[in-house]
Write a structure and sequence with these properties.
Radius of gyration: 26 Å
Strand content: under 5%
Largest sheet: none
Number of domains: 2
Shape: elongated
Length: about 220
């Protein structure tokens, strides 16, 4: 009778898939049918789906797991996860090779293999956050550009055809502050106020993703 890995239900479709949906904004894909080779036909797995496949393969035996890794390599599936500087990013297949070479997986060794796979998942989340931060930064930059244009448009609508020029008598064009002192950071406050919901939303998404992926 085959022995199932201890703890595998905790990182299968019930935990890893919701994290994937939260991260990528897509609905969970239905499980694919597995060929005798150990991987689904025509499947191009993401890092999280690859982890799920390894958990499923590990529930069978070491030979299936090793064969599944070899098939994925032969398919030349790109699983390189890069940060914004494109340096020091772990490679999934190399991580799995180290996992297999350090301690061969076999029936009855489920707690060890499960723990190692969980650590790989945590590493994936840590690196993936760089990409998520980059996407969020790009979105915030675009939002700030639009906000800056809106502020300039409002200033132009007040002054007519051009922005007013600071002078000893008129002070700062937007605040009316005395020219001898630095103007209050009105524009910066507006930007921070507009950015706050975006930053809070991104931070909350990171917290949920890391919490769900590291359980």
């Amino acid at each position: 009778m085959k022995q199932e890995p201890v703890g595998s239900p905790g990182l299968g479709h019930s935990q890893a898939q919701p994290a994937a949906a939260a991260s990528y904004g897509a609905a969970p894909a239905p499980p694919a049918e597995v060929e005798p080779g150990g991987v689904a036909a025509g499947e191009n797995p993401t890092a999280i789906r690859f982890l799920q496949r390894l958990v499923e393969l590990n529930s069978e035996d070491t030979a299936s797991l090793e064969k599944g890794v070899r098939v994925l390599k032969n398919l030349k599936v790109s699983l390189q996860l890069s940060n914004c500087n494109n340096t020091q990013a772990p490679h999934w297949l190399e991580s799995i090779d180290r996992l297999l070479n350090t301690r061969p997986l076999r029936r009855g060794a489920a707690p060890v293999s499960y723990a190692r796979m969980k650590m790989i998942m945590i590493n994936h989340v840590e690196v993936k956050r760089h990409t998520m931060f980059q996407q969020a930064t790009d979105s915030v930059k675009l939002h700030l550009e639009e906000l800056t244009k809106r502020i300039e448009t409002e200033a132009l609508s007040v002054s007519g055809t051009r922005l007013p020029v600071c002078s000893r008598r008129r002070g700062h064009p937007l605040s009316g502050h005395d020219w001898r002192f630095p103007p209050p950071p009105r524009e910066e406050l507006l930007l921070l106020q507009e950015m706050k919901p975006l930053v809070e939303c991104v931070d909350e998404a990171f917290r949920e993703h890391v919490w769900a992926s590291s359980r």
